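Re-running the complex after MR caught last week's input typo. The corrected sequence lines follow. Everything else is unchanged.
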Amino acid sequence: MTHLRQTLVVAGHGMVGHRFVQAAVERGLTERFDIVVVGQEPRPAYDRVALTSFFSAASADELSLLPEGRYDDPRVRLTLGTTVEAVDRDARTVTLDSGETLGYDVLVLATGAGPFVPPVPGHDLDGCFVYRTIEDLEAIRDAAATAKAGAVIGGGLLGLEAANALVSLGLETHVVEMAPRLMPVQLDEAGGGTLVRHIEKLGVEVHCGAATQRVVDVDGRVAGLELAHRTVDAEIVVFSAGIRPRDQLARACGLPVAERGGVLVDEQCRTEDPHVFAIGECAAPGGRMYGLVAPGYSMAEVVVDTLLGGEGSFTGADMSTKLKLLGVDVASFGDAFATTPGSLELIFADAVAGVYKKLVVSVDQDGNASRLLGGILVGDASAYGTLRPLVSSGITLPANPEELILPASRGGAAPVGMPDDAVVCSCNNITKAAVCGAVDGSADRPGCADVACIKSCTRAGSTCGSCVPVLKNLLDERLAAAGRLVRTGICEHFDLSRQELFDVVAVHGYRTFDDLVTAHGRGRGCDVCKPAVASILASQLNGHVLDESTVALQDTNDAYLANIQRNGTYSVVPRVPGGEITPDRLIVIGEVARDFALYTKITGGQRIDLLGARLEQLPAIWRRLVDAGFESGHAYGKSLRTVKSCVGSTWCRYGVQDSVRLAIDLENRYRGLRSPHKIKAGVSGCARECAEARGKDFGVIATEKGWNLYVGGNGGANPAHAQLLATDLDTETLVRYVDRFLMYYIRTADRLQRTSTWIGALDGGLDRVRAVVVDDELGLGAELEADMARHVDTYFDEWRATLEDPEKLSRFVSFVNAPGTPDPTIAFTTERGQIQPVLEGEDGGPTLIAGASIPVGAR
Amino acid sequence: MTATETWTPVCTLVELEVERGAAALVHGQAVAIFRTHDDTVYALGNHDPFSRASVIARGIVGTRGDVPFVASPMHKNAFDLRTGRCLDDEGTSVPSYEVRVVEGVVLVGPRRTP
Ligand code: SRM
Ligand SMILES: Cc1cc2nc3c(=O)[nH]c(=O)nc-3n(C[C@H](O)[C@H](O)[C@H](O)COP(=O)(O)OP(=O)(O)OC[C@H]3O[C@@H](n4cnc5c(N)ncnc54)[C@H](O)[C@@H]3O)c2cc1C
Ligand code: SF4
Ligand code: FES
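Corrected-run output:
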């Protein structure tokens, strides 16, 4: 029997069903089972937790957990848009609404939950919605286009999330909650009260302790809500009054369900029938259902483990929650209501700042707080990452536990040691030990040196992100302990990081390396700090790179305004903004290449590389290019490279905007901008994305209404897709956002940090970037734009300026005492009709007069 | 090269940029001449043994601890300006030459024996 392959059917392709299949593939369950997944929704599983971001996403695909639409394992079949209608446990088959019948050896129910709609009169009128699927949100968005006001029934977690959405759709918004406060499950009265004040400040009207009598019906459409004491006008009503497990399949085939709903399962998530399991929101292990995704993920792992013969079990889950509702931090964890006998509450409240924090602690024989049991945070949940693991680990509290919730300025936020098995990322159930293991590395994998690496190695931090600050602390602690501490100082000459150096230069107005190193460093600098300081000075002052005060700081390529090649010659890459070039100019490039016998190649950045120029030839080459209206162009330097474009609406039958025009303008605007690492950009004329804009540090994709702006992409060794920052911008706003984005990056990134890693390392990640760049929450926008305006105004062609300055030109010689003599060690052969370098010791290469180098010992 | 007493004038001190190098041709050899912040002048072979290209003069000049050094522009290997020893790889070095500044003129002398 065991030699036969078996069939496993998964009913439901939501978040948990998807995680189950992922784990099954990863852990080798598909060696034994063919898996058939049947999902009712028309699309593969998506991130329901982030459902609200659908409104800001370019398309629903951004939420997808399986963007390719299939698994990378041929033994998994995914059938979407199909419902499992019945289970026959005797025959071990399921029937689908398509009429198909499937046999199973194992059936996994992952049907999730559905919104509970209270049977108030009018609940099924036109204009009533629920908030659970992408289709629900599409319908709400369409209805909002013609509506003025909306009301949400339910002031819990999901209700506030829905209210958030209505506000962002521009509606006057009401929240109606039957309980006397918001989020009654998570918050106490004082916490709920603080939250109400925050939310009302945003213009949302909150009605607590209010029962809905009926939905007002005008011609079969919603016109408002009748509450006990008043009526509110609204053309849209969203029901968010709780969820109910979708356990009908189990009920119909006689499997026991819990009293309050949910398929009853044991610690292996097995139902009474050994062939049937249930996981996620449709399941009720031990009679209790869990309305969060993390417990569902644990259940999925447990079932895979069980089927592989493992011993995993599900014995309950952390119901902690942290979220940002309408911009307000709210967290609730552990025994938030102090139900443990003898527990004590420590409260910090600041009504002016709108902050409420409560810790629930247990008390030892001496009356001292001994362990943290739970807590509530409203208005400032920054301590959540540190506090939650304290609850699960049960370690003894420090002497003054109130320090943990006092504002930082009053001594709070002390770092606390936690045991190895403390769960630091509750979304993915990752322990401190696992995070530390990732930092330490192993025989076949180097240790992580940043949070991005921890994310990809362990999954920690990749779901809600609330644990990222803790990950960062653990990382620093661990690196320090291992002597791998990333000293923030950039090298032995400065104890300051690049960002700190940038600020010091801005504040003190230093104009030279000497002043800076005298005041804040030691020694004469090196190849690490000097180019970094050169870049900082250039970003702020925009002088010529070869000015006397900065020339000694420049990296080789900047020092000679061209890219050095393996044999000591240089390449010249004329700037071709946006990749657009006239035939005449094309001919000029050809002539220059021919006359100086340069190797010619089309680059990956839509321009033409001329290689093999000797140092002393560079000025003559630039002269020819400058005279023809070119500038030499940066293919070197930590600066803007190219803005790639597609042909766009001018020619392309699909184009919706003029991508070439925008690319040229952007390239001309940002050329010469010195930055922590190189910057690349792209502009595509429509969603087909021929310019690969999402592979760039900033990418622009045309829409019918304007431009979508993406940030943080790159190719290279660790490719990253740029993420959507803002949609449907007009050109002026787009340029303003890019100005801010680039200057924010230049001010705060580390040396040699591309935008993607910079965003990943920022506290708050992309949301932080959006807060600064789009929402201007720090009020920095105007300053960042002014910085960029200065760059644009002071930009000049540095090659042309070099040609005009005999002093600068004098460096471009082969030898100081024999300027006309070419370096005898440079030699070329010919290959495919063009020159190619040969080095000493290679066939046809130059021979050195004996003893020019003396390698001792084998190399 | 046994003519230990030959000194070749290559340029004036002011022609050398502070903390940058310049290449000179001395007896048919490419020599990299450096002027540090305290106006000391050093001369090393210009040939980078790692990349096998004649480029040392184009590197960044600085200090590691008390050691004045140049980082090769090709792959950033550091060489002690005083001795030519590679600071990242004990076994490798570049030649170093005697230098003098006489009345503002830089003279390159014989190669030092390691
Ligand atoms: C010439 C070119 C290859 C070609 O023949 O096509 C090239 C050549 C070099 N690339 Fe590149 N890259 C070239 C396009 C790219 C691209 C494609 C693109 O820009 O669309 C990529 C991937 C996209 C990206 O950067 O995100 C690319 C990723 C890299 C990387 C990896 C960057 C990363 O973040 O991982 C490096 C290394 C670095 O910068 O640290 C690099 C570094 C280099 C350097 C500068 C290495 C060096 O220090 O000598 C090469 C010297 C260029 C020269 O002219 O001497 N090159 N390089 C391309 C010049 C495009 C241009 O017109 O400016
Ligand atoms: C707006 C919103 C915000 C949320 N925020 C958070 C949060 O911050 N943190 C958190 O932990 N959780 C949050 N949740 C809850 C989280 O989304 C759920 O816990 C999670 O999606 C449960 O996963 P699941 O796979 O069990 O159910 P689902 O994701 O609902 O998937 C079940 C799937 O099964 C399908 N299905 C049902 N019956 C059948 C059938 N008979 N045949 C075939 N297919 C069927 C359904 O169509 C559905 O696609 C939020 C939910 C919402 C709606
Ligand atoms: S991105 Fe769109 S507009 Fe641009 S070339 Fe491709 S299909 Fe045409
Ligand atoms: S706790 Fe949500 S991602 Fe770590």
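None of the earlier attempt is carried over here. Confidence is low (pLDDT under 50) at residues 408-415, 849-859 of chain A. Chain A touches chain B through 48 residues (CB under 8 Å).
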